[in-house]
């Protein structure tokens, strides 16, 4: 992902429960905070500290989980400060090592709010889909529900607000949009985001050898398909892949 | 023949629960596991186990249960009405179940989540390192009538029954919260008002969280527009859009965009999970250092519960085959059984 270079944003080291330290690079999901979070996560993960039981990045922060029975919080703060000192100035997101090709049916029944979302983004439906296809998309965070990706960032015209009224139910596989990002739902869900498309791909498939399919930093390329094609790529028929393909990048 | 526990009739939400799946927050899966970990620790203490066991968690009410092999069980957590072959039996203690006997567990007398723990352990296939059902995450499912659950063999079915004096947690009380990443979004006056309020359990309450109600105005954070979704800790007190607090429990989402005023410490989470409809709670804000000092590992929780375990001294009037008992030294206490 390319973007204007900026300084690594100021950080805060905060408590998150009795077994967590959160290193936060900003309150909003801008590119510099995203990049800092991903690079910080990489520095920490590379050191394989035995005191840290889990390292997980979100959009603008990184969670360091520890076992308070064996490690004091102060030790985790020291580890965080040492890693912050190694972050370096480059704010580009790390280059992806994998790319998912993700078939998505847009509009109509499989994207009932595409027209509305496109209009808010100042585009026709066709132009909106083209922007999604051409965007340099990455998995920015995984969360809310198992394996569920936050994907972005979309161009600035996609800084759409969340809906004031929640949609009571979007189906599993729904692709929804808000605040520069796409979310792909694993399960039926309520949402305040707008549904523009649907896929047979399930990012969480519990019985598979890799139940969580996506990794933070994965590149995503959307491939528009027809609704007829989508029906043939149903998750049960394709082990939840829905026709998605994983390409290794050099 | 392998040991099994048969569910003849299941209450609305009976699930297998253990300590859940830690370290999958980054994959979007909350730890899950038992809503009341003290109940697991008490069961471990009753059976002298070194680790937290898997148990059947029963929300609000239990079911109708039998076993294929002689098996001791521990009943802990929210006390529920329980009958073995039609006779009332006590909570917070162990019992020996024989094949052919019928254990019927009814509604909770106080609290919400009751636990049945077999002495030989639950031997279902773990999924992602745990036997816990995580219904929100689509892992496992609730127990249903006619289901059989594989058990490990009870190593000591003839061991005498023991009881545990339960840690009080079934009627609300003072709940300690520690500051979190978003506590600063609430100004001092709003935080003070929150700490002065008395809350009751709202109608929306399950393993994901408990909505809390009070008589006053909603609690409003400062500027929150455009906040990035960020990590949630179990115990976080989230202010939803309408300014009503919602305490997140073991099966919560892992990230969210609503501001959170603080985090309930682990020691007090059972008070929230077990808060009955008319129970009241009030929050106290403690420092991070104080919260860290309150941390107890599972081994420490079990060791603490062991200090509350004692042999069960039975009331002779309840023992039908009294002549078969050796009354050592004639010491028989009065009504010592924990009945709740």
What features would you highlight for this structure?
heterodimer; A: 250 residues; alpha+beta; Gyrase A, domain 2; Cyclophilin; 2 domains; 7-stranded mixed β-barrel; 4-stranded antiparallel β-sheet; 5 helices; globular; disordered N terminus; B: 340 residues; mainly beta; 7-stranded mixed barrel; 6-stranded antiparallel β-sheet; 22 strands; 11% helix; disordered C terminus
Notes on the protein architecture:
The complex is a heterodimer of chains A (250) and B (340). The longest helix of chain A has 17 residues, at 31-47. Chain A is 21% helix and 29% strand. In chain A, strands 5-12-9-10-7-6-13 form a seven-stranded mixed barrel. Chain A is globular and about 55 Å long. Chain A is of the alpha+beta class. In chain A, a hairpin with a 3-residue loop joins strand 3 and strand 4. Chain A has helices at 31-47, 73-85, 114-120, 125-134, 227-232; strands spanning 12-15, 20-24, 52-57, 61-66, 98-106, 137-142, 149-152, 167-170, 174-178, 181-184, 189-191, 194-198, 219-225, 245-248. Mean pLDDT of chain A is 91; it is low at 1-6. Chain A folds into two domains: 12-85, Gyrase A, domain 2; 98-248, Cyclophilin, CATH 2.40.100.10. With 340 residues, chain B is mainly β. In chain B, 11% of the residues lie in helices and 30% in strands. Chain B contains five helices and 22 strands. Classes of the chains: A alpha+beta (250), B mainly beta (340).
């Amino acid at each position: 992902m390319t973007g204007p270079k900026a300084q690594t944003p100021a950080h805060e080291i905060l408590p998150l429960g009795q077994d967590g330290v959160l290193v936060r690079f900003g309150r909003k999901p801008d590119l510099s905070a995203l990049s800092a979070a991903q690079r910080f996560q990489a520095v920490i993960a590379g050191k394989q500290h035995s005191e840290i039981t889990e390292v997980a990045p979100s959009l603008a922060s990184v969670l360091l989980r520890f076992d308070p029975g064996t490690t004091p919080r102060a030790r985790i703060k020291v580890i965080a400060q040492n890693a912050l000192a190694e972050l370096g100035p480059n704010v580009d997101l790390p280059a992806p090592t994998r790319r998912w090709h993700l078939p998505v049916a847009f509009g109509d029944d499989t994207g009932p709010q595409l027209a509305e979302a496109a209009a808010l983004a100042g585009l026709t439906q066709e132009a909106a889909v083209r922007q999604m296809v051409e965007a340099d998309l990455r998995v920015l965070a995984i969360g809310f529900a198992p394996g569920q990706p936050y994907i972005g960032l979309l161009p600035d015209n996609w800084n759409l607000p969340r809906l004031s009224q929640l949609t009571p139910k979007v189906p599993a596989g729904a692709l929804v949009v808000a605040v520069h990002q796409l979310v792909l739902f694993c399960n039926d869900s309520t949402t305040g985001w707008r549904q523009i498309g649907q896929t047979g791909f399930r990012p969480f498939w519990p019985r598979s050898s890799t139940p969580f399919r996506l990794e933070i930093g994965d590149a995503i390329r959307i491939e528009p398909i027809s609704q007829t094609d989508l029906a043939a790529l149903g998750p049960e028929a394709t082990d939840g892949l829905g026709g998605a393909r994983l390409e290794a990048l050099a | 023949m392998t040991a099994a526990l048969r569910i003849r009739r299941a209450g609305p939400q009976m699930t297998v629960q253990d300590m859940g799946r830690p370290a999958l927050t980054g994959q979007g899966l909350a730890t899950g596991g038992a809503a009341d970990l003290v109940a697991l620790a008490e069961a471990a203490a009753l059976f002298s186990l070194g680790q937290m066991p898997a148990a059947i968690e029963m929300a609000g009410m239990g079911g109708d249960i039998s076993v294929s092999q002689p098996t001791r069980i521990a009943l802990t957590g929210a006390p529920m009405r329980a009958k073995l072959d039609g006779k009332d039996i006590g909570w917070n203690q162990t019992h020996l179940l024989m094949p052919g006997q019928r254990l019927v567990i009814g509604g909770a007398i106080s609290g919400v989540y009751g636990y049945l723990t077999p002495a030989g352990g639950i031997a279902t296939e773990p999924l992602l390192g745990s036997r816990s059902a995580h219904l929100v995450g689509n892992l496992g499912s609730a127990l249903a009538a006619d289901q059989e659950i594989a058990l490990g063999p009870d190593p000591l079915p003839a061991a005498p029954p023991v009881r545990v004096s339960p840690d009080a947690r079934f009627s609300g009380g003072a709940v300690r919260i520690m500051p979190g990443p978003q506590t600063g979004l609430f100004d001092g006056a709003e935080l003070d008002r929150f700490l002065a309020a008395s809350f009751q359990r709202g109608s929306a309450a399950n393993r994901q969280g408990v909505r809390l109600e009070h008589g006053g105005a909603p609690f409003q954070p400062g500027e929150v527009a455009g906040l990035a979704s960020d990590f949630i800790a179990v115990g976080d007190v989230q202010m939803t859009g309408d300014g009503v607090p919602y305490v997140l429990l073991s099966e919560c989402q892992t990230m969210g965009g609503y501001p959170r005023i603080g985090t309930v410490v682990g020691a007090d989470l059972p008070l929230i999970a077990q808060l009955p409809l008319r129970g009241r709670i009030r929050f106290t804000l403690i420092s991070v250092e104080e919260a860290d000092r309150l941390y107890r590992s599972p081994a420490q929780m079990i060791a603490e519960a062991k200090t509350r375990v004692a042999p069960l001294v039975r009331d002779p009037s309840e023992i039908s085959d009294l002549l078969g008992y050796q009354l050592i030294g004639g010491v028989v206490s009065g009504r010592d059984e924990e009945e709740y």
